[in-house]
Each structure stands twice: as structure tokens, then as C-alpha cells.
Specification:
Blueprint (H helix, E strand, L loop, with lengths): L1 H5 L5 H35 L15 H11 L10 H18 L17 H9 L2 H11 L3 H32 L4 H9 L18 H14 L11 H4 L9 H26 L15 H26 L5 H29 L1
Helix pairs in contact: 2-11, 2-12, 3-11, 4-5, 4-6, 4-11, 6-7, 7-9, 7-13, 9-11, 9-12, 9-13, 11-12
Length: 345
Amino acid sequence: MTLLLASFAPPYWLSTLIKVLVISAVVPTTALILGMVFLFKIMSWMQSRLGPQEAGPRGTLQLLADGVKFLQKEDIAPNGADLWVFKVAPLVVLMSTLVLYVALPASLHLVVADLDVGVFFVLAVASLSVIGVLMAGWSSASKYSLMGALRAAGQLIAYELPMVLAVIGVVIQAGTMSLNGIVLAQNNSSIFGWGGIGFPYILTQFLGFFIFIAAVQAELTQPPFDMPVAESEIVSGYQVEYTGFRFLIFFLAEFATAFVFAGIAAVLFLGGWAVPWLPTSSDWYYVLGPMVLFAKVMIVSFIIFWVRFTYPRFREDQLQSLAWKVLIPLALVNIVVTAVLKVVF
């Protein structure tokens, strides 16, 4: 996107404003897409229900109707709450999601910031959401909110480590931390001399892909990793005191984060926006790149939500044991094997 804007030579402030507006439009759009397709339609199909049918054609406007409903609700803060922190917390969570989209490439040039350390950037930014969660839990002056926030903090810290370790195998194999560089490395490689599908790293990093998806599921606090918002134990965790548009912000952040994590997984393991039979410098990628990436994002999102709709909630000890006793050792084994094979071959 930077190179695309450079061809029109707008001033820096206008270029920055355009990038901010684009990302601000993309976040609610992606949240609406995942919410409608998976939360309302796929889940209802898997559970043999109709799902929403009244708002718009086959219920396609239901999420917009829900959004309008939330905007009309009263903005309530509990007695004893730290009002400034209470009100800012959802925005901190949403901002961490917004910044993730900065480095996600939809083609070689359709990216807000093509960073040489893009992998490091997205992993670092992904950890910022825990600050907003802790702010929400502490400022709500509710024991349920505080317990949910502490659970979320412990869970996010535990699963960030296997997420980082899972990505290291991809970085070793690609030899770069640039997200576009990883896409090009997969697209320009071949399998035993055959380049029909390039060389998507899921073929060699399937263990890393499994660990990454499990860590994403925990980062999103979705079942079976939804201990921070367990209704049967702590009502709704750190979100319990939020109403109206502030609760809507948490919802938008959750689903927009699911979309961008699915996009990052598609870039790291599925070849991202590229197709092997078309040169990566082609102008067709201005249109084709976002379409290819979107298709792969929907495939990864289906896996994420399939797990959400299928498995019951872990106990807290099971949740922590899975991270520290299973995922982290497997990720370390994956790194060692990848490093050895990289040196040998």
C-alpha cells in the first residue's frame, strides 16, 4: 500500500490518514464476516438449527441489527469502578487488533507497512491485548471481572510462548522475518522439482501449524480455552460489567483478531496471497491477492471455529498443563528438527 500511495505522491499526513481509514474499515468488516458466516450460520448448521432468518435476506443483516441494538443501550459503569480505566480498556484491546492489520500483506504492495521484522512485530503486538484485559478486570470493581482478567493474563502469557516457538520453525525455513518474504519463499520453491503449488510450509511445519492454531484459540479465549469468560463460574469474566457499545468493542476485537490471526497463519503456512503459476510482480495481485488470502483465511477460520463449536471447556489445570507440558516441548522439538534439516539440506 505504501508503494501504491507513493505512485500518487500524496503528502505524508494524507497517506497516513488513508492507511488509518482503510484499517478502521477493515476491522469491523472482517468481524462482521466471521460473525455472520461462522457464529450464526456454520454453528447453526453444525447444531442442526436454522440460525437467524428475519433480519435481511436469510438473516444476513442480523449482526448489523445487533450492533444497532448495542449502540442504543445505556453505557453503565458499576459503583466503585475506576471510570477512566474502565472506559479505556476496550479501546486498548481494539487498538492492539488494529495494529496487527498494519503488517498483514494482501499482496506484494497491498500492505500498510512491509516490515523486515514483520513476524516479530505481529507477535509483539499480539501480546498487548492482555493489558486491556487486565485494565477491564481491575477497574470494574467486581471479583468476577478480576478473576476473569487474572485467568486471561495467565492464559495469554502461557500460550504466547508456544505461539512464538511455533513460528520460529517457519522463520528458520524461510530465512527471513518479513511476512512478504515468507510468502515469496513459499511461492518460489518447489516440491522435489515440481512447483505446481509452490512449497507451502504446512507440509513441513504441520506440527508448528497445529501448535500455532492451538495458541491462537487460547489467545482468543474461545472454547475449549474460554476459562476467562466461563459463564458457569465467573458469569462473563472481565466483560461482565460492560454494556452497550463498550461490550460491542470487545466483540469486534475478538472476531477481528480471529480474522487477522487466520491471515497470519495463512501467510506463514499456506503461502499467503500468492499463487505459484502467476509471477509475484504481476499487477493482477492488486485484485487477486486479497481474494486468495481471503479464501485461505476462511479455511483457517473454519478450523478455529470448528474447534470452538466442538470441544468442551478445559479445567484451569488442564489448560496450563497443555501449554507447558505438551505444546512448548513439541514446539522445541519442531525447532530442533527444522534447524537440523535446514543445515543438512
